[in-house]
Amino acid sequence: MTTLWGVSFDATPISGVVVEFVKTARIFHDRGYRVLLDLGYDIKADKHAFHRPYRDESRLFPDWLELARVDGLDRIPGYHEAFVADVLDDLVRRGDPVRSAEVDAVTAALAEAIVAAWEEHDVTAVLVENGTLPENVAYTRALRRAVEEYGQRRGLGRYVLWRDHDLMWQSEPSSGKYGTDPWPAVDPPTDSPYLHHLVLHDEALRRTRQWAPQLTAIDVLPNTFSHDRATVTPGNRDFRRDHGIPDDVPLIARCTRIIPQKRIDRDLHLIAALPDAWLFVAGDPTESPAEHRRLTGLAADLGVTDRVVFGGRLAPYDAEDPAGWSVRDLLAHATVVSFLTSYDYESYGNPIGEAIAAGVPYLTTRYALYDTVYGGKGFRAPVLAAAADLPTAAFVAEVAALLRDPDARAEVAESNHRLSLRHFDRGQAERLLDRLLLRPMNPRTTLSVVLPVWNEAANLPAVLDSLAHQRGPDGAPLDHAGYEVVLVDNNSTDDTRAVARAFAAAHPTFQLEIITEPEQGVSCARRAGMVFASQRSRGRPAGDEPFHLVSADADCRVDPDWLGELAAGMRETKAAIGVCDYYYSAAHFASRPRLWDAISRTLRCRAVTFAIFGGFPDGKGFAVDRDAHDRVGGIEIFYQLRDGRFVNHLSDDWDFGIRVAAAGEDIAYLPRSRVEINPRRVDHAIDEVITGRAYGANGTIVMRDIRPDAGDVEPAEPVDLTEDEARQAWEFSIKDFTPKNTILPVLLRPARLAEEPVREFFGPDLADRLGRRIAEILDEMRVTDLSPIHAYKTPAYRLYFEFADEIFARLRATVGEDIGYPPPLPPCLAEVPPERFREFVRYYCEDRESGEAHNYFGNGGVF
């Protein structure tokens, strides 16, 4: 089993740093890692837990997390709490090098013990939390030494994530605790091949790069929060009663350590000014007994003792404590959450984020990084000015108004919750970890197959089995070292991920990577998978063989020779994109001859024109050279309005092919690489197929979910189309097909009209006239780039209407007489005098209001 070792420099079981570790570690756990956490009792001195055994701390954590620590540290000569405090004081604050030799000796012994612990637990990934702050110089240096030694010994890549929640410029800089800028006694981060640095926001990234410009591997990983709204449930409804808080009073919640820097005194003064409100302080009163005594005395002086509850330490947000209450329970009963902290103490303000994600309003000070993390992103709350020592009258009035108005609280909470999903959703961490910490790519791998999935648990075993049993052109099984599958989970709510992991466990040589894409839509998932595969492939040892990204579809079936023929075709043609052959099983339509006739004529047209023009990629199966993919910027997601809401454009594969072709790259048709199309694309959208609306209408290209519901019953005997329905389905199919596959290739690259196969297809006279007309239309429209969404449609549609009779004559000559003649013109064009036909074709095709032209052409495909 793969193992994650976590180490916190906080030396406490409950803190923002530890809670963030649990959230991140959960992602590792979900991927099969064993998770161990060292709470740092043997690291930080000011918590006075040095060498103290763990007691009941494990009850505060999920059952999948094990508490661990490095053995034998209490036996290292000179390594104790006083040593750590003295080094911080002597070496860091005063720059006195007198302790350097002693520090070096302790560092060596610590590093040896750390490596031994990692060896014992077979550690494969490490997450260091807040290790750069010089709280313990010897331990930080030892960790960095252990990272290098263990990484070299195990042959690991960047197996360590080193996350800094706080650095010197954002953690009490006025106190001089860590020296002064530029902190000459603080060891800057090292640029190790085994280590990737993380910071919490862009300001931290900027300052860290300024301080340590040698760093090349550094990213922003914002704190993330579980976006389940906190509600009163049978399990927590007695929270107020158990703490003596009336049900009908406003409750201000404060989740914090009880230390002077947190400024809980401000909350007491606020409560004194709000005679109907109560305050609940969730924090350990034993951490700083003097501060707890000061606060309880202040509460008595202010006359608010009976309205202030020091509730003790609650289980953290992501843990379940059957023996007591959790932060989740407090949030369910809180009216607002308070964060009236010191100006220069906080970096992120996790209680704010937890309140927002739980759907609870908050109030805060404008601490140094508040605007960077929250305020600058549009989050709304009463904010106490940075210069104010205690709550001002204006601030108290704003809080009072919020407490009195439930509608205002609900509106603010909803607005903040929506923003939080954009900025602090767990998906951000998952995507970054997908990129940083998956196993290194095999140096022999030259193909990444991207497989977007959404609730495909039922189909997935067969799909993965077909991908795991691919053959080469010689008929031998493809070596699993030569290709991988990148499964992109697009918010599945079924067992898709579990099914994929089970398949991978049962097929240990099959390379399967699982990543997530939170934005819904197959286009978004395909883009995420290809970007991930491209970036990841850059880290493999360079070879002479090109690297290819391959698209597959979870609801289709690839032939056993699909991938081998695709790879061979890409090597042979040197094309930027390789397009597969797509087919339906004729047996599925045996009882529906009219429908099959319309489908088979479309497939025959595709085979002929793809062989001549190369075709365009379809997400069901194509390959693209990685470098060509990166040169054009990858798959671009376009957005359109549908029913007043933005939706992502469906034909990302087609638009991507247009961008590649428009860039002068070649597209090759590789007919021996074959994909069987799932007939449900027709079966469960037959009405839309017949009317040309299967992919949307009025220019908006989307497609509804065509998978049958669990309760759907398949008809015992599928019903064939009537003659009128079959004719209509064919007309929509050929109207969609012809502009895209016979006109668009030469519209994008008119020079192709001089190529022999293209010229032979059109005939010299038609080819020359098409070339002249394309030049005229492009000049008239002043179009120089046809790759943006829909830019190609107007000229392609115009050319279709002007040359339809001649193009259909060429299709009849090359595909078969049954292709027939062009479908009837739109009634409005049929009434136009012949001498003005081109003029009104232009108006028809450029009409942006009605979408008539898009609807006429089937708007995105039928079969």
Notes on the structure:
The protein is 41% helix and 14% strand. It has three domains: 3-220, Rossmann fold (3-Layer(aba) Sandwich), CATH 3.40.50; 239-426, Rossmann fold; 435-688, Alpha-Beta Complex (Spore Coat Polysaccharide Biosynthesis Protein SpsA, Chain A). It has 863 residues and is an alpha/beta fold. A hairpin with a 2-residue loop joins strand 21 and strand 22 (645-648). Strands 16-15-14-17-20-19-23-18 form an eight-stranded mixed β-sheet, with helices on both faces. It has a seven-stranded parallel β-sheet with strand order 3-2-1-4-5-6-7, sandwiched between helices. The chain is elongated. The chain starts with a strand and ends in a 7-residue tail after the last helix.
Summarize the structure.
The protein has 30 helices and 25 strands. With 863 residues, it is of the alpha/beta class.
Low-confidence stretches: none
Head-to-tail CA distance between termini? 46 Å
Which architecture of the largest domain would the CATH scheme give at its second level? Alpha-Beta Complex
Summing up helix and strand content along with how strands pair, one would put the structural category as: alpha/beta
- What's the helical proportion of residues? 40-55%
Strand order of the largest sheet: 16-15-14-17-20-19-23-18
